[in-house]
Prior knowledge:
Chain A: It holds the Pfam family Molydop_binding. Chain A: It comes from Jatrophihabitans cynanchi. Chain A: It is found in: Cell membrane. The complex is a heterodimer. Chain A is an alpha/beta fold. In chain A, strand 26 (798-800) and strand 27 form a beta hairpin. In chain A, helix 8 packs across helix 26, helix 9 (212-225) runs parallel beside helix 20 and helix 20 (590-598) packs across helix 30 (951-960). The longest helix of chain A has 18 residues, at 178-195. Chain A is globular and about 85 Å long. In chain B, the strands form six sheets. Chain B has a four-stranded mixed beta sheet. The longest helix of chain B has 22 residues, at 400-421. In chain B, a hairpin with a 5-residue loop joins strand 8 (199-202) and strand 9. Chain B is an alpha+beta fold. At the A-B interface, helix 1, helix 2, strand 2, helix 3 and strand 5 of A face helix 1, strand 4, strand 5, helix 5 and strand 8 of B. Strand 2 (38-40) of chain A pairs parallel with strand 8 (199-202) of chain B.
Amino acid sequence: MNSREHPVAALDDPLTEALLRAGRHLRPGVVSADLRTITREGGREADSFYRDRWSYDKVVRSTHGVNCTGSCSWKVYVKDGIITWESQQTDYPTVGPDSPEYEPRGCPRGAAFSWYTYSPTRVRYPYVRGVLLQLYREAKARNNGDPVAAWAEIVGTPQLRERYVKARGSGGFVRAHWDEAVELAAAAQVHTIRTWGPDRMAGFSPIPAMSMVSHGVGARYHALLGAPMLSFYDWYADLPVASPQVFGDQTDVPESGDWWNSSYLIMWGSNLPVTRTPDAHWMVEARYRGQKVIAVSPDYADNVKFADEWLPAQPGTDAALAMAMGHVVLKEFFVDRQTQYFHDYVTRFTDLPFLVTLDELDEQDGQAYTAGKFVTSADLGGTEENAAFKTVLLDRTTRQPVVPNGTLGDRFGDAGVGRWNLKLGDVSPQLSLYGDADAEPVQVLLPRFDEPSGAGATMRRGVPARRIGGRLVTTVFDLLLANYGVGRDGLPGDWPSGYDDPSQPGTPAWQEEITSVPAAAAARIGREFAENAAESQGRSMIVMGAGTNHYFHSDTIYRTFLALVTLTGCQGVNGGGWAHYVGQEKVRPLTGYSMYAAASDWSRPPRTMIGTAFFYLATDQWRYDQADNGHLASPLGTGRFAGRTAADLIATSARLGWMPSYPTFNWNPLELADAIERSGEQPADFVRAELGSGKLGFACEDPDAEANWPRVLTVWRSNLLGSSAKGDEYFLKHLIGAQDSLRAEEAAPDARPADVRWRDEAPAGKLDLLLTMDFRMTSTTLFSDIVLPAATWYEKHDLSSTDMHPFVHAFNPAIPPPWQTRTDFDTFHALAKRFSELAAGRLDTRTDLVAVPLMHDTADAMATPHGMVRDWRDDGVDAVPGVNFPKLVLVERDYTAVAGKLGALGPLADSLGATTKGITFDLTKPISYLGAKNGLVRGGAGAGRPALGTDAQACEAILAMSGTTNGQLAVAGYHSLEQRTGVQLADLAAEHEGKQITFADTQARPTPVITSPEWSGSETGGRRYSAFVVNVEREKPWHTLTGRMHFFLDHDWMSEIGEQLPVYRPPLDMHRLFGEPQLGSVGELGVSVRYLTPHSKWSIHSEYQDNLFMLSLSRGGPTIWMSPQDAKKVGVSDNDWIEAVNRNGVIVARAIVSQRMPEGTVYMYHAQERVVDVPIAETSGKRGGIHNSGTRLFIKPSHLIGGYAQLAYAFNYLGPTGNQRDEVTMIRRRSQEVQY
Amino acid sequence: MRVMAQMSMVMNLDKCIGCHTCSVTCKQAWTNRAGVEYVWFNNVETRPGQGYPRTYEDQERWNGGWKLTRRGRLTLRAGGRLKKLSTIFSNPLLPNISDYYEPWTYDYENLIAAPAQQHIPVAQPKSLLTGRPMKVQWSANWDDALGGAPELTKNDPILAKIGEQVRTEFENTYLFYLPRICEHCLNPSCAASCPSGAIYKRTEDGIVLVDQDKCRGWRMCVTGCPYKKIYFNHRTGKAEKCTFCFPRIEVGIPTVCAETCVGRLRYIGVVLYDADRVLEAASTPDDHDLYAAQRSVFLDPDDPAVQRAAEEAGIPHDWVQAAQRSPIWALISKYQVALPLHPEYRTMPMVWYIPPLSPVVDVLAKDGHDAEDSGNLFGAIDALRIPIGYLAELFTAGDPKPVRDVLARLAAMRSYMRDVNLGRPTRPDIPDAVGMSEAEIRDMYRLLAIAKYDERY
């Protein structure tokens, strides 16, 4: 080695050396012989500073109740009663010796949380806007100290009401006493219920899994009042509507540990390092196990670094890419040769072999057909029970139509007992009619929408068809091949000449023109995905996320993805299938949580409302929505959407009982109930008659009428106005009544709704009261009338779970709530107590008429044979509750007993049990256990019942009443499901039958859950959770029409919109719909670009984006990422101040210019709100907006379908999404002198 | 032979997701206080990029570390120590606050306290140094994820060194993350720069610390450290630096940054080395040989002679055992996948890195090849998105061979394990091609992929 050859290694020069040698004895340590350095031992008092800094008194386990799927367990360090910092727990139970572990879980955002505890943005005391508090005190004095009369006077006197409504968002908070703030809120609630009805209030608090009790206690309070809770999963556009459509399930996905089991992983619109930070390592490490990794992302996102290949598809075009991959899979693995594994899988677990009627079209040039409805037993003359919901396939052996086990027709009737399973017996489903001796080739017309404008056209392709029972039928599989452009010899129609034919939808070359991804790459990845699945028996996986899920047409995007994992037999297999992670939606102890939150132990049903429709109407976005929904329709449709706006379709859905609608009627439902009682009629007869006479109307058909406004909105665990409020400026203008920067024009008279009343004057400030609980100042607290100081996640007891890992674990107080803060639990109990007192003599006991939609997982799913719409208003049929009208239920409410009921487990839990996804659990044993564990309530409305008076007791109740955390319930639930299915299931939970996970268990360590019928996967024997494993391995049907996973959807509205099958639809054309400038053009307002709001690296939604640590590590305020090319067009340099302007609003931010970004697209990372570093905008002269100031709501009609099989409502299961990804904005450089 | 023990770290950059959790937990624990607002003992920088403080790697400008004199003697680049003593009262060459960043906060109180007013209240940024309103212009992580590229990456000293045109096209974009702490060097130039003798290596574990009583605030150490991992506390007037979390290490728990790393990419362990040979190794004439020279200073803990010498040097038996099962030893010497950061600074740094295996197959795949196929595997290494030359400038003073060898080993592991994963017969020729046995590649896989807590630390 060279160094060894070097003569004498030495330092510096001889003189220096001599000097230093002389000096070394003066130093405290030992100078090395070569004089290089000093070593020292002992005597280290000089470093005591660092030892002291590290010392602490205790470590407390807690977590962060934020909507991020993390559910990470943390150590919170406390010294001298002060929280100092946090670091991750590493004590997760092991995943097994051959696998990485879940330790550590956490991210920089979570690590920065303790900053909030003592930060200057902490809400320490109750605040009320000064002008309101003064009005209230004066009015109370005028009204002999009567709080309700005082509130009534304020809101009933326009001049008084206007004074505080107009002041919203303009500072001026003053401290209030807790009792006074609570009294003010309770008085407003009593007044609202009495005057307008309980359905004029609403609660918004999302994602119960992130802190079940904190969510549940407020939801329970609202349920006891009869006030609706607003949905969040669909409102956030996190709900993949494809999941209910295809699986009949809200969302069920593998835990991240199961990525390890995959040997081919596509990250599709999911930037794992940024948005699944604690889980990303599974992907990184699985690569070392030979997993191939693909990234599909429009930008060079953080996850692309890990990928073996990057497919930079143009934003929102992902379905074209997936269809091309599907084209290759179908051609090479189904048609050119038959892959046995795939064939067996799709015939058993999908609707592909089921028969569909072909409807003849009137055509000039020859005969052609369109796909119609599934063939049912009833169509073939069957008269057995529920024959209209027994779908039919052909048996390969007998060549006769048969109804296999497991269809919806077996699910609810007596004859279906023991038959609701996927056992085929002797039946061998015929996948295709191709080659069938009785089949004839026929032409079908199919819709296509691949023009950039999104306009529909048709394509002519062929399928083999056969006559059965007088109708021409084919299989879903044959239709799918036609739709994907995979031809077979002898079939008529226009087919692609090959992969390189760009003219026909479905081919790799076709997608290249749309997505920019090279055709060869698309074909190769599709082929590899399938090859890997065939070799590994289904271990190919797609991790998909908000990058593809937040578009208007996300459901079709997702259906093309799901087609890939389903065709290749990956769903229900460990290491395979879809992995959709948007929202921490999985409340693992589901049954107990639902019972607690819905107060189903005291009264049923609760009111739950689809958030998107609620806000669309309440914020008057409908008034600016000029889109005729005919533009979305298939050219093969009947025109049923033509001339109908989204508001019209919401009204249709409401009146048919498809989706909930609260407020429901233009009457107070308490007075409606009184009137029914007075009339002596049945509720349905009374309501029908009054609707007929015109005295009664649906509130959604006149949302601007004063009687139909939402009056009280309570927000907790959420920052609605700083985060999820798509169309934030519309919120500010119409719901809140504050200043806004809305620039849109209202719809012209000829573009207005047909069925919804237009009032010339749009209301500004519909809410009487916006009540918020938070621990920090947000864009929501800034506009609230009352802000109550909340305890943080380090200051209370609660429970956390997620779909990313299989554990339940606890929140614990590291310190008591400081200053005057209170837990949500204590706040709602305080509110309930004051409310109950004020209700005495004002409300007492009333009867409430609750209109309930047709519910999923109940027999309501059989309300609409063939999904054929029978609108009682137009079609000359009767309105029948439960069939084509909401069910009407009278519920008695003792408003003086709300507080007592809130803190006790009610008697309906004993008598009715709890029902989750169609399975009823007998709760007798858990209730008796809880009585002993929590103690019994003495006195009051809950006397003698198990106590729920503390947050820890509520945690205990949730755990005791859920199968995932109570083995006895899991086993009993499976036994009940065994009755219906006739397949063995209870053994899945038997290993834990005697196990009751207690709250103390979850405080000690994250606790793995028990396999339970509440979910579709299995953790039995320490397996990694993967969705639908039980369906595949135990032949338990999916909760769909056929009992299988659906490619084909035959509801009238699905054919109308042209989405019976997976199809590519481009992002909405904002130029065509709203007259925004063409993409790429440069005008006065700047360059026109796609405006995307993906999830941020420096925040979890709006949480942490104001945190000093996150701001210090990023750019310190709102930013917009753009490409150098776009920046150049408008003269923008990195860190310049810019303004983003479109019809929805105005945003001021600084530019981050980066080559990482594709030309034509900008990112404003999600939920950068207006609290930090937002100057006054040049364009508006007002405070710049939040990321959602540039967006608005778009309602997709197909999301409003209900009452039919898997397309039936359940809370957060189905509903229109609050999508926002299709938007465009103009960006320009502004003056660099900014004013605040 | 004079055996000493060194507490060391390896970071597997191939696993780094750039999340900065390490930075935050470190900041919270150690530097969340006045005087060090701008200080991040642990930071994560995006490469290509300028780093923190910006362009710190440009030693032509900052004069950090050591250099060889024409006569082959090792001398501080900023000037010999005599010069240091003679110029002690003049301002040393060091980055100013704008090279780090001017720390700031916001007027958060305004959100609650704002009186009734026309506009929605907002929290305006203000300097933590002056208290005055400011426009935020730079931070400890300003160019995160290529923010500001290509404009800002132009000033990346590494790119300048390799003469590489910045790849400004969207299609050819690449990035990776480089987390950094103090290197706890075997030959610390900070210590050698200190006129007060306040900086020392702990005898038993080699952790480099600043004696807070002895420090006189001359700031020569800031100049001397080429990694710029010594910081000046402007309130106390003393130097501060990463302590390798010695209060935790002493009681057997890993550093904060390592334990909180959700990428699970940090390894901590003991390395035995021959203290008598450090200067010689640091004086290796050819920069390219410095990596090998430093490895040659490490002692094989399984060698009985080393064990005896360690005992004589007073190193406890359990430390020798720890050195034997040290993941650092395994990654540096057994599997030879970890490399030092900037060996050319001649400080003998002891935080080493496994270079990142960026998309291997992209280029090959365009021609229809599957680079997972071991036949294509090694050709693919040269088609990496991240130029090998860039990695070589970071880890091997510009010598591409050791970097290529590491990447080939990682790629071979993936290829070999894919057969295992899919239940195919394994192919011994794959490990063989990178000079490893099947058992070795499986052991390396276990350490890199399974990476259990007990085996990382």
